[in-house]
Amino acid sequence: MAVKEKLRKLGLHFIMVDLGEVEIMETISSDQHEQLKKSLKESGLELMDDKRAVLIEKIKNVIIEMVHHSDGMIKVNFSDYLSEKLNHDYTYLANLFSEIQGTTIEHFIIEHKVERIKELIIYDELNITEIAWKMNYSSVAHLSNQFKKVTGLSPSHFKQLKEKRRTPIEEI
User: Fold this and answer.
1) Which of 36, 157, 161, 171 is most buried by a 10 A CB count?
2) To 5 degrees, how large is the angle CA 130–CA 64–CA 116?
3) What's the pLDDT at 110?
4) CB of 36 within 8 A of CB of 7?
5) 6-16 burial code (b ≥16 CB/10 A, e <16)
6) pLDDT for 84 beyond 70
7) What is the pLDDT of residue 73?
8) DSSP letter assigned to residue 52
9) Nearest-angstrom CA–CA distance, 156 and 76
């Protein structure tokens, strides 16, 4: 909404405004570009010009969307899904991500899956077996091992904690 409003104020017409992506109808001048950049910055947003940085953000958005906002089970191979969704070879995406982020796509996915598992444990609507199935783990043991590696706690110990230790998505 904020991005749409900024575009309207600058007299720019958009075809689509999506998470991390805007398609503008007209070609914008360098002055409009600078105004847009400044206007977005005032709202705490950033205009990204570097194609590699844009691709990294797209990778992150696809992973976050799939892990945190997918109602169904995650039954897709992430590398195939990312390649298909972003129209790039997975090796290229993985190398670029590691180079820019200093971590692997796999590690980024695991961090987000663990945060989603924490969320599901806190909601207390599913048991650990159901969570493992929903998050596409081969077994409860696999989920538990990965969860413990990341958090230092077993899922059951985490569930017993009074203060749930969740990390906001932005801080991962």
Assistant:
1) 36
2) 30
3) 95
4) yes
5) bbeeeebeeee
6) yes
7) 53
8) H
9) 27
27: left (phi > 0), else alpha (psi -120 to 50), else beta?
Answer: beta
User: What residues have CB less than 8 Å from 74, skipping those under 6 apart?
Assistant: 66, 67, 134, 135, 136
Going from the N-terminus, what domains does the chain have, and what CATH number goes with each?
2-47 (no CATH), 52-171 (1.10.10.60)
Tokens representing 148 are: 């413990």
Sign for the CA dihedral angle at 37, 103, 114, 140 comes to positive
Looking up tokens 């600078």, which residue turns up? 34
pLDDT tens column, 7-32: 888 888 888 887 667 888 888 888 88
Nearest to 145 by CA among 157, 153, 133: 153
> What is the pLDDT at residue 148?
97
3-class secondary structure per residue, 10-40: CCCCEEEEECCEEEECCCCCHHHHHHHHHHH
Q: CA–CA separation, 36 vs 7, rounded Å?
A: 7
Which tens digit of pLDDT belongs to each residue from 132-150? 998 989 999 999 999 999 9
Residue 16 main-chain phi, psi, to 5 deg = -150, 140
**How many whole angstroms separate alpha carbon 99 and alpha carbon 94?**
9
Six-digit token string for 122: 């806190």
